[in-house]
Design goal:
This protein is mostly helical. The chain is built from four helices and no strands. The protein is elongated, with a radius of gyration of 19 Å.
């Protein structure tokens, strides 16, 4: 399906370029995009919460990514597991 904000010829050219790459190159590009997305999300969290701890950053990231996948009670249980695991060496 062609995105609504992309002209058909541009979309087709993007696909041509993408599928000219080897599977390994496409995998590497996808992983790099995931790294970039994570960095952007973390940057936004840090901007809203200066001085946030590493554990709270992890929790906020998790909440943003999975808030629609879990009921609130289950989400809170998972967060408590994060915190309890962080306390245990």
């Amino acid at each position: 399906m062609i995105p609504k904000d992309t002209h058909k010829e541009a979309y087709n050219k993007q696909r041509e370029i993408w599928f000219a790459k080897t599977p390994g190159e496409r995998l590497t590009a996808g992983l790099l995009m995931m790294d970039d997305m994570k960095a952007l999300v973390e940057s936004g969290i840090r901007q809203r919460n200066p001085g946030i701890s590493a554990m709270d950053l992890k929790i906020e990231w998790f909440k943003l990514m999975y808030k629609n996948d879990f009921e609130e009670a289950e989400l809170n249980k998972i967060i408590e597991q994060f915190r309890s695991h962080d306390k245990n060496p």
